[in-house]
Amino acid sequence: MRQMPDETPYPGLPFLKMHGLGNDFVVIDARGVARAMTPALARALGDRHRGVGFDQLAVIETGTDSDVELTFWNADGSTAGACGNATRCIARREMELTGKHRITLRTERGLLEAIDVGDGLTSVNMGEPVMGWRDIPLKGACDTLNLPIDGTPVATGMGNPHCTFFVEDADAIDLETLGAKYERHPLFPQRTNVQFAHVVGPDHLRMRVWERGVGVTLASGSSSCAVAVSAARRGLTGRKVRLTLDGGEISVDWRSDGVWMTGPTAHVFSGELTPAFLDAL
Fold this sequence. Notes:
The chain has 281 residues and is of the alpha+beta class. It has five helices and 17 strands. The longest helix is centred in the N-terminal third of the chain and has 15 residues, at 84-98.
């Protein structure tokens, strides 16, 4: 009789692949998992040819004063202070698992609140925008609404530094060249996310994104918040806007209690990293 292969599952590291408007993530639920995330593991996972591939990696841990605690990593192995779309994706999953319609998530940004608003949409309060040059941070004192850079972009902190250019046509911008250039502008000591946006209407913006430590992405939650705040500060729009990104549309509402971002999420598949992959790092 032919012996059947051993189907006993081997110990690996489970993960989820999720995305918000094409802004894609690997999510690792580290609650009860001994293995710690490292820059080397983050880079290996972020490799779209030899790993899984992601714009950001999110690690879930047990919260002490929140439902969950999140840490974010970029594909280059650096950490990120915030990731709005990943926060929404994880909030949606946690609400589905627990049956709750409102949860809290602790990030480097602070304690964030997420709400199921129905129709498959999730809202997250990304907190108050940071507009002071020291806190964003910038290298020196300057007007954050009109930076001393060609194109006079706006600087905003949303857990990560952001540099927003308002242009005639965001689709005509050479995003790869200019994004890479301004990510490492000397004015931003911690590098910056870069956005190019134009006004479609009083409550509608078109924007494209270059993310620090990642590159061109189809969408970015914290960048969407930064662009909405920048447009409102400039008087180009009101405080509640719809943003069209390369990956789809998201809504941002800058309220008295923070910047609320609302949009869809997707859990694409679940998988497991093999011991051989992990041992090779």
